[in-house]
Amino acid sequence: xxxxxxxxxxxxxxxxxxxxxxxxxxxxxxxxxxxxxxxxxxxxxxxxxxxxxxxxxxxxxxxxxxxxxxxxxxxxxxxxxxxxxxxxxxxxxxxxxxxxxxxxxxxxxxxxxxxxxxxxxxxxxxxxxxxxxxxxxxxxxxxxxxxxxxxxxxxxxxxxxxxxxxxxxxxxxxxxxxxxxxxxxxxxxxxxxxxxxxxxxxxxxxxxxxxxxxxxxxxxxxxxxxxxxxxxxxxxxxxxxxxxxxxxxxxxxxxxxxxxxxxxxxxxxxxxxxxxxxxxxxxxxxxxxxxxxxxxxxxxxxxxxxxxxxxxxxxxxxx
Length: 319
Ligand code: UDP
Ligand code: MG
Fold this sequence. Notes:
The protein has 319 residues and is α/β, with parallel strands linked by helices. The chain folds into 2 domains: 222 residues, Spore Coat Polysaccharide Biosynthesis Protein SpsA, Chain A; 71 residues. Helix content is 50%, strand content 14%. The protein is built from 10 helices and 8 strands. α6 packs across α7. The longest helix is centred in the C-terminal third of the chain and has 34 residues. The protein is elongated. The protein binds uridine-5'-diphosphate and magnesium ion (MG).
């Protein structure tokens, strides 16, 4: 296999229903580019037949296919990180295995790279997801826009292209939990975006529950910004100022008019409100402390059980 110019990195988790169609569309699309390419599949601990299907595909097209097998489920972003570490191309494209973004559009991203952009983001032309995903992601997009300096029209779309320099820089980062498009954006010198197609998931189902989406967005906020914490100290300052004024007022009132009675439930309401804010603040601190905790443990981000590739077809034990 001569050195590839293009590496396509694809995380796969329980995608047995999508893989046949993916293989059928991806390889012709890449062959048509007339560029030396490789496809790096990462099997993220699938419990279905995905691993076996990837191995079969590897034997069919071992000239351009490499497969990294994780021995557990480490999540989409860590799978992509593993792909980055093993990718050899000058241009690296990430793609989901579920065909929601058409592999036939990869050339649109590469055209921008050829012009000289080092990061090509993507915007879904017409998003085909459930309504709640639409609304939630619009909301998260807007919040991210406010509290981080990352400019991205459509943060949910993973089909993107990165230059070798950006991927090398990402490979030097050892954050445990991250959000690849945002991390890459912070290293980009010349980013741009293109509009690509988006289809409904034809087979299988989304691997993200509401809970994991919320987690991912916490990673995005706390991993790229201190603004939530800073807002909180500002809020704390305002509240203490307000309560200081209230105490002064009540003290003067006590001295001038005398003791008051009643207003018990108003007091409760105020107290509950403040307790709520305090609990939220503790939770927020917890998010950051959790991140720090994950970092200091320095456990491996993922474990590879085997790598299928031509020549050095081996079972590497890797940490
Ligand atoms: N994925 C993964 N590990 C996970 C979850 C997802 O490798 O723990 C892969 C999945 O196989 C797919 C991509 O990440 O290729 C995006 O997942 P999905 O399509 O379920 O996400 P959605 O499109 O619903 O955001
Ligand atoms: Mg999808």
